[in-house]
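Researcher: For the record, we're logging two predictions in this thread. I'll number them. Prediction 1 follows.
Model: Prediction 1, sequence and structure:
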Amino acid sequence: MSRSRFGRDREPRIPRGPGSLPVTPRRPPTLPDPPDSVMMFNYGPTTRRRIDMDTRDMKFIDPEEKDKILPSARTARRRTIRPPEDEMRQILQVKGVDLHIAENTKAHHTDKYEQTEDRKTDDGKDESAELVVRRAQTFDLTLTFDRPFQADGDNIQLIFQIGTMPRPQWQTMVTVPVKQAGTGSSDGTAVSRAWSATIKSQEGNSLLVSVYIGSDCIIGEWDLAVYSVMHKSGERPKIFAYDHPDNIFILLNPWSRDDTVYLDNQELLNEYVLNDTGGIFVGNYKQFRPRPWFFGQFEDGILEITLHLLRRAFGYRISTAMADPVQISRALSKMVNANDDRGVVIGRWDGEYSDGKTPSSWTGSVSILDQYEKSGGAVKYGQCWVFSGVLTTVCRAIGLPARSVSNFKSAHDTDGNTTIDRHIKFDENGDVVFLNERDKDSIWNFHVWNDAWMTRPDLPEGHNGWQTIDSTPQELSEGSFQCGPSPVAASKSGKIHLPYDTPFVFAEVNGHVVYWEMKSDTEWKQVHVDRFEVGAYISTKVPNGKALTSLAWGANNPDREDITHLYKHPDGSPQEETTMAEVTKQLELGLKYEQPKKEVTVRLQDIVSVYAGEEIQLVAIIDNNSTKVRNVTVGLSATTTTYDGVGVKDIATMNFKKEPIQPGQSRRVELRIGSDKYLGHLISNGSITVRAQGRVVETSESFVAMDNFIVKPPELSVEVEGDVYVRKPFKLMISFTNPLKVPLTGCKLELSGPGLMGRTFTIEPRQVTVPAGGRFSESLSLISRKAGVKELVVTLDTNELPDIFGMKAVYVYF
């Protein structure tokens, strides 16, 4: 009997999560009673269990859900009747089943899952190998009997079932007759895409059987039984059932043309299914870089947690929707966030994380999913790149090709009109006043979602391929915080009527910013439309199947692929104008794009690079475009903001009164900000937003310009001492220099990487405080369970400075 660390075959823990219930272990369920026309006998192992809702699901149930859910999750048992000895001697008895785990997993591209090997857990327990295969493909098994199989007299059937009450009509029970070669198709391409079993060879008492898994198979943990059927004249047929003790995990198959997730490019498959490390781009449109992330979809237990999330999404039942990538991806986008359905991660953006973990301190998905499973409750805290990283993990775990996608200057439309509405008024001095309390829409420095690859038989032609899904809880969709799948092609073409949530996704990359002037409490006038403010440098990791190689800032990072062209036409192009005209017509927006030319305009000089501890110099240039002298009043201000555009702290303000500017000339005004003004007010992945605004004295005409920039943190140096060998301790050295004029306090390290003993480490280093200008240094002793190239990801969390991280690719020898 195989065991897993995720609740299989062990006494359940008393859950610590809110609303969880201590549970009594359930007896192993078996098949329902056969119809009266058949007599059923059992022999062989009886320790097998079936997964529908078990102890792992039970501990996540709220008390008020108990009475509603538990009656439908009862255990069905089959009567165990020992057959007469004379009939046992006549019937072809199964003595054993060999699932050929090593050979099958290699053929199915599942040999990287840790559970496919006999192994010892980190706590010293032995785990036996389990079979993980993909649907729409054959796998081999050997049936060993007590005598040679006779084709003209023996009747053997393979019974696959999933859930506590499997039924053929629910696609949760499949009967597969074992046939001679040539009597049925088993390749799924010529005659049928349904399940089949064909004898490949016979040697003595053993049959080598090739089993084709139906292309519309529900994904999950399936049971296998072998039936020997005896027919005697004048008697009811008798079935002698051998229950195989181990489960078979069946996943989606992007390698098979018969699967709706088929992806015909091995390089892309190496990245979007098989790569367990990578990077997620963060920053703003001028300054961004990849953040290393350990997806860890092959780590022991991650697949089982993912399947638990699917069962939970569908009401703790095995659903036919669990065969459909459209419904699977939508369900996972709901379950990764914890805003409803008691999912995995709680989002928080206000900077207060004292009762959890700072979002920037996470190094990957494995530690998050581990904590979710162990605690029985949601994990604190995450933001968009965390949600996306976890969603990439669970999608890849089940065979759904997926990637994390970063959109810079990403819009958040709250009312479904695809525009980002900003509201202003003019005060008694003629100065612009931003009515932030009325602005429900926003523009984030960046936002990270996911693309998942699938066909869309539910949509018109031309919408297969990449589909946007998003697990960050932003807006309700059909009553839940879920988003997608929305065809990427629909966002580009403006077909916002196509499901799911396409208007929201369209606005994120193509929305126009509309400024409304308040004339009275009930009257608003459109004064400006910015067509090109939203959606830039849409980025994902280059699909090479390898680890990150660079943490360099900017669009030319060698690990970055620009996919903006997939989501939108070039700004200002005829195609873009056609798309926007169509959307505007569909929504009856009535926007006016012709803008009057202004006599005086203002522009902010780009701040390309500021490192933590450096002085900031803001420069605004006011241009007089008229033929007359103009006197202007100008104000410069700077505010630290979260990455989703919410102000945190006003750090500097300066006003310039009645500055005269000659016709056709410009005036330059400056504001310098010392590091003491912004340190301590920076938020993870946040920025400093600067604004220049003013008015012309002679005409009362107003002008405004806004921009933001990132204060770049130092990078951790991560090095390894000597060569690294499997299951041998090695030393990892972490260091950096504090660039600030103040100490860094509350230092904590987090480290993760594939195949590490211990999986993920949170460490309070010897140096909890790093002096101003001082050197931080820490060494760790680690052990790797696996050979090959492994990327280690390290973050350093401090009270004063967020987003300090580094990485190291390590080759581990046998």
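Researcher: Logged. Prediction 2.
Model: Prediction 2, sequence and structure:
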Amino acid sequence: MASHKQLGSFWSSGWSPNSTSAINEAEVKIWCSNLQRLWNMYKKDEQFFSLMQSKLDSSPNPFLESLMICKSCEDFGIPGRITLAHDVMMTFRYWLADNQQAYQCLDQDVKLSACKVIPYCNDTNLSQTIYAVFNIAQDPQLVKKVVDDELARRKYKEACHLASMGQIYSQYSVEQIVVPLILQDKVNVAEVFLDGSPEHQKELIVLLDNILGMNDISQLHQLGLNLQVPNMKLGNFNPKTFKKLVSRLSKKYRLADLCPNLNKKNKKGALFFMLKKRYIEKTIGEESWQEMAHEAVKDSRELQIELIQGVHGYGAHKDVAFWVKRYNILVSDLPEHVQANIDLNSGSSLVPSEEPVSKRDTFLQLPLPFSSILILDTAKGLSMFLDENLQGISIVGIDAEWKPSFGGKPPELALIQVSLPDRVFLIDISVLKGQMSSELLDKFGAKFFFNKNLLKLGFGLSHDLKAIENSLPQIGSPLTMNVGGYLDLQTMWHILAGMHNIVLPYKANQDSGQGLSSLVYQCLGKPLNKENQFSNWERRPLRENQIIYAALDAYCLLQIFDILKHCCREQNIAFEDACRESVPHAFKPFSPSKPESSCVAIPKSPNQLSPRPKLHAKDAKLLCDIMVQGLGKYMRKLGIDTKLVSNPVQHSYCVRVALMESRYVITRGKSFQEFASQLPEGHVINISSHYVEEQVDEVLRFFNIHVSQSDIFARCMGCNGGNFKELTCSQIVSLIDADIHEIDGIPVKHQKIPRALLGKIEIFRVCQGCGHCYWDGSHIERFLRSKVAKRILPSN
């Protein structure tokens, strides 16, 4: 879009207030249809601006007439900046800057007309432009009048957008706008309103939590009937999805404290989860079980009785006595079937004891003395660690721990473990958080988290990094795998197993899973003891078995790394390549201080990949996931076979299709890492630009695809087909007259051909796959004149 400065010399102050003729709406529509044809061919060229200026200069009321032109555009109501409606309003805005005298036409009636148009724009940019140009912010009562009219017609979406734009939140309750939208399954629209009003956030959360506490989803239907909400879509709500909605909104707006019923349900669910881990899976230790069970039920007598009933249900009658005594619960308050099995004089089995020798033999043990585990809980200790203990170190293991959260609050980071070859440091974030100055946090980020010369090994690193970033946002820029210096052993394991068929020293059981403990077993012959994983990491002092567990979780990463390196060398697998395949392409190389670590220190960025052979557009095959659908359609325009996966299906489906059909994958954002872990190096690109022209350039350069003029529009934009049947105009006319929609078994969608074209176009190309009809028109000329075409097509 040209700026006003660029157009300044084009506009002239040509509007005169002397014109007294009325605006003829029918004439405006005819004029607009001519403008539409011009815009379809050339978009915003000088002829477009000339027509607009002439129309506005001669208008008795430029404000009203520009609004009428905007509404008359064929694409009014279609989202997107590249629409005639948007260009008309922006052009009027530029014209208005040089014709300030036209503001005398902006009366209350014109503003009211603009207010009525805004809710139906379906495009934020256009809505905001109209709102600004017509100075609607100066008249909140006009906004309220239109919102009231929309609400009276039960047009909640339209009312929501206008009320949010006018910021008149205080004029309405959640029952008037937000609740009806939720009942119509338009939660995303309701959130537009909620995002601007903390009071309505609280009001809604309290209302939804109260309904959740009734344990009766039909209350939603009754609420909708009371509010007379039409077109309710309550079929999408069940107890589980409704609870998820309340949970998501409470987390988004940080209002977990206003959700007693949600918190109670979460704690109840956590309690059942822990009972299973304790008595069925036997994967939670006695001390961790006592801590976390108490955390779940300490504030609720009802949950305490639920705990006792659950323990009784698993036949642990001695444990029942322990919990009855702990909470001073009267036996008469318990169900009769529980009372019959209680012996309060029996000893409880819940007495912490030393770990049996059999367990030490069964599970992996830390190969360092306990004195090698150092807890950093002072700012001075952390600073010394960063300045001295990391000197000469090029590779560490990293892990993080936090207390499981039962409510809607996000978990708070408690511990960061960093393992060196001879020591493990436990950085006590729970204690340190209030002691760290901004200077120390900057040093922590620069010397550790963002240090590309220090390789940090992890397992499922993205999750840990997110928790660290949430708890320590002051350390610097967003903390992701892309900042460099990180290697996820989980990703590397999957690549080595799936693509290189690596054989590890120990064979895993079928039910061992894909977690760290399984990889530890396959590399070192013993699994991890995870009994302390689900424990209270905020409680101080930490128990000795918690400290050892935390240290081993980080130290075993160094052991695994060495085993994977050794196995690769023994089996002639290029270890360096496997490391490069395991990191995002945005990972930047760093220079290790030790030669033995160089194999993981030089991952390549996309521009450093080995030169690709030239690939002609007609031979290229791409797959675009849901994140880059617009780019995918553009690639079809270039004649490239491009499959669009438009539903948010599992990544495994896209990977399977890509491998079976030899397609390169195009994606952006978080999906990239998952694709990169399952596809060969260089077979997936992570798009960085937000502009489709630049995205096209990224793809063509990355895969070295060469496009010729004969490739342009060589594929069907609808079905991706590359086979066409040519039909003459007379053949098309014959099919239309006979109302026949196929020829030689090929479908022909001639109903989409404008009648005005018949007789002007000699040859039509019909896609043999879907029947879509194409013809040579101005779109080809426009494309060949575009910046993209000039950049990608041969100069001749």
